[in-house]
Write a structure and sequence with these properties.
197 residues; alpha/beta; Rossmann fold; 6 helices; binds glycinamide ribonucleotide
Length: 197
């Protein structure tokens, strides 16, 4: 069984998609052993709690320096002895030490077709705002391995989603989540759990 830890920052709809996929057998050979949030009081923690998954907050606000926060985050992750770390809307830069220790064992979901609309400053709704501003007719989502760059690691899966007339950033975000993210992330975990990558 692949031991999976999920890192979150907010709503946790991608976490929910993973929880549901483990429950309904879309993901096999994997168990969710822990959820860590960098923010208190977010919906993602409620989702973890409801699913009976051990969960905790490791917030930079509780540490005197970024270095100490990074150390605590790495210790928190290590304690779950994960085989795979999933960044599901985790909007914190991953410490280099974690990337070294978990090389090819960290994946991220990004709400665009990389290499478009990715890198520093492109996260959450900002990605969809930029896509609409540029006037692209197709966007989508990408699951990729995490390396030391921002959204630069090897791509595992991508799915295209159309941009439609009248889209607002929120409408587009919802379509990208429903049609791409919530399917791609469970599919990637299932592939890794079954050594199909
Ligand atoms: C998702 O759209 C995810 O792709 C994005 O944040 C959202 C989190 O939603 N991640 C990034 O932008 C990473 N650069 P969720 O908390 O409901 O899963």
């Amino acid at each position: 069984m692949l031991r999976v830890v999920v890192l979150v920052s907010g709503g946790g709809t991608n976490l929910q998609a993973i929880i549901d996929a483990v429950k309904d057998g879309t993901i096999t050979n994997a168990e969710l052993v822990g959820v860590i949030s960098n923010n208190y009081g977010v919906r993602a923690l409620e989702r973890a709690e409801k699913a009976g998954i051990p969960n905790q907050v490791i917030s930079p606000k509780d540490y005197a320096s970024r270095e100490e926060f990074h150390k605590a985050l790495l210790q928190g992750v290590d304690a779950y002895r994960p085989d795979l770390i999933v960044l599901a809307g985790f909007l914190v830069v991953i410490p280099e030490a974690m990337i070294d220790r978990y090389e090819k064992k960290i994946i991220n979901i990004h709400p665009s077709l990389i290499p478009s609309f990715c890198g520093t400053g492109y996260y959450g709704l900002k990605v969809h705002e930029a896509a609409l501003e540029r006037g692209v007719k197709v966007t989508g989502a990408t699951v990729h391995y995490v390396d030391k760059g921002t959204d630069t690691g090897p791509i595992l899966l991508q799915k295209a989603v159309p941009v439609l007339p009248g889209d607002t950033p929120k409408i587009l975000q919802q379509r990208v989540m429903e049609e791409a993210e919530w399917k791609l992330l469970p599919a990637a975990i299932n592939q890794i759990a079954n050594e199909a990558v």
